[in-house]
């Protein structure tokens, strides 16, 4: 079953609270319409949210997924034709994929001219496996990534607050160092991130995560 529209639930990693995913997606909801690919969906079905925003059809795609009806395959070489999707969401995925340039080529190839690609990529986050962890991007790095693959940047938005940034780093440090540190850090991080979890929109350059919106110009479409 997909995530229900208007279903706002906090996510948590250890003691670190994160705002509901829909809060993140609400700030870019105007970019989703028509046929949407949830690229690197994992087991998170966004069909309910996407259709609430105006999508007509949602394709869940990943190398492995328990979502009923999901299409299984690699992001490096997808089975979709050129210019298939009106919108593509690729959230918390690009930091984990090998051969990112090949993945970006596929996302750009399958996006319709005038369509939108929305990617969420961390900048100030600790090392975390899913199942690998390769990279982080600054705002400028994301803009360049899009340009390298023929995509124009519409906007780059921050996600999360300094509480998630410092709290998650502190928690991972405490676990790695061990001893009494996790017991001391856990309640502090739990409370701080529970109280402060809405995105701080003032964080233009030092956000926990950046959410970039790209579009594909007509001249970049393949025939």
TrEMBL record:
<dbReference type="Pfam" id="PF08241">
    <property type="entry name" value="Methyltransf_11"/>
</dbReference>
<protein>
    <recommendedName>
        <fullName>Methyltransferase type 11 domain-containing protein</fullName>
    </recommendedName>
</protein>
<feature type="domain" description="Methyltransferase type 11">
    <location>
        <begin position="39"/>
        <end position="119"/>
    </location>
</feature>
<dbReference type="InterPro" id="IPR013216">
    <property type="entry name" value="Methyltransf_11"/>
</dbReference>
<dbReference type="GO" id="GO:0008757">
    <property type="term" value="F:S-adenosylmethionine-dependent methyltransferase activity"/>
</dbReference>
<dbReference type="InterPro" id="IPR029063">
    <property type="entry name" value="SAM-dependent_MTases_sf"/>
</dbReference>
């Amino acid at each position: 079953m997909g995530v229900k529209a208007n279903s706002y639930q906090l996510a948590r990693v250890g003691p670190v609270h994160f705002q509901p995913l829909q809060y993140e997606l609400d700030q870019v909801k105007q970019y989703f319409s028509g046929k949407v690919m949830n690229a690197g969906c994992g087991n998170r079905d966004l069909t309910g949210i996407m259709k609430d925003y105006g999508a007509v059809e949602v394709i869940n795609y990943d190398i492995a997924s328990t979502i009923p009806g999901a299409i299984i395959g690699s992001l490096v070489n997808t089975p979709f034709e050129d210019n298939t999707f009106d919108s593509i969401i690729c959230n918390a995925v690009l930091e984990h994929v090998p051969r990112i340039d090949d993945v970006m080529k596929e996302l750009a190839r399958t996006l319709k001219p005038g369509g939108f690609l929305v990617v969420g990529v961390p900048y100030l986050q600790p090392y975390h496996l899913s199942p690998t962890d390769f990279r982080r991007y600054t705002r400028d790095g994301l803009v360049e990534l899009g340009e390298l693959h023929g995509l124009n940047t519409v906007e780059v938005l921050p996600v999360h607050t300094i509480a998630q940034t410092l709290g998650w780093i502190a928690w991972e440090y405490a676990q790695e160092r061990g001893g009494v540190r996790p017991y001391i850090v856990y309640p502090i991080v739990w409370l701080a991130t529970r109280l402060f979890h809405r995105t701080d929109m003032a964080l233009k350059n030092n956000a926990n995560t950046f959410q970039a919106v790209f579009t594909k110009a007509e001249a970049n479409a393949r025939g």
